[in-house]
User: Fold this.
Amino acid sequence: MFLFNNHSHSHTDLPVINNDKPINQLTDLQKAQAAILSKYNRSYRINLQDILNVYGYVKIDNNIANIRLRQVDLTSITIGFNHFDIEHELFKPIQFDNDLKPIGYSQVDDLIMDMAKTSAKKRGYSYIQVQTISSPSNIFELLLISFIILMVLGYYYPVLIFDKFFINIGIPIYICQLLKDKISLIYYTTIIIHLIELIIFMIPKLIYHRVPIDYFIEWCIYTLIEGFPAIKRFNKIVNKYEIGDIVNGFDLEELPIDAPLAPQHHR
Assistant:
């Protein structure tokens, strides 16, 4: 049961930032508020979901949709969302801890991110959501993929690959014969090792970082083909967010006022 009557607001009760004004015509206060709203609504919707669940005590299920940061000030944030059984948008105000109330909007941003990290941890997830794919790029990865593909083809077409193609490109005959004799061992060993790496190492990471299903499938395919190099690339992406401090901090002048309805996926 939803009990929002005592704390909910209609849309008109919330302060409105005029999006028709260019950002250079807004006050510093409006710029700060607009930048934070834009930042979280554009790129950190999954974190708002965590905050709504942990700090707003709203159960997150398939009935909850369109979660957005609607209001921010120095004492609280207000998260708006829709529920399948209720026609109008619902608003959940969340007060900052009295001991941690910020004195400026840069501290507000830090405080919201701290709430995001805490709430994600309580839900068993990372506060970083990976929404991208990294393809093989260096020479080692490309050679490894090429070798694995040739071994798969060699398992099904040994004469074509080992007796013709490999010999024609100058690989010694004794190496071709060795690979041909051991192809079943190479084939099944590779499959088993890559399945282990996928199930034990990669899939838990994908779930922990809440990778969208399209990228989830692509990461699984790369892991099945390459094995550890795909896992290494995934870890590098996560480290880029952590070490690069991408999550914290933002430029008020660079962020647009009108944030898109969904986070953008980049390839």
User: Anything to note?
Assistant: Residues 1-20, 245-267 have pLDDT under 50 and may be disordered. The two ends are 41 Å apart (CA to CA). The beta strands are 64-72, 76-83, 90-95. The CA atoms of residues 124 and 208 lie 7 Å apart.
